[in-house]
Amino acid sequence: MTVKYTEDHEWIRVDGAIGTVGITDHAQEQLGDVVFVELPEVGSTVAKGDASGVVESVKAASEIYAPVSGEIVEVNEALVDAPQTVNSAPTGAGWFYKIQLSDPGELDGLMDEDAYKAHAGD
Amino acid sequence: MTESQDLKTTPLTALHQRLGAKMVPFAGYLMPVQYPLGVLGEHRHTRAKAGLFDVSHMGQLRIDGADAATRFETLVPGDIAGLGEGRTRYTQFTNADGGILDDLMVTNAGDHLFVVVNAACKEADTALLRATFGDSLTELTDRALLALQGPAAAPALATLAPAAAEMTFMTFRTMDVDGIPCFVTRSGYTGEDGYEISVPADRAEALAEKLLAHPDVEPIGLGARDSLRLEAGLCLYGHDIDTTTSPVEAALTWSIGKRRREQGGFPGAARIQGELANGTSRRRVGLKPEGRAPAREGTEITDLDGRPIGRVTSGGFGPTVDGPVAMGYVETAFAAEDTEVRLVVRGKPLPARVAKLPFVAPGYKR
Question: What is the value of ipTM here, to two decimals?
Answer without folding.
Answer: 0.90
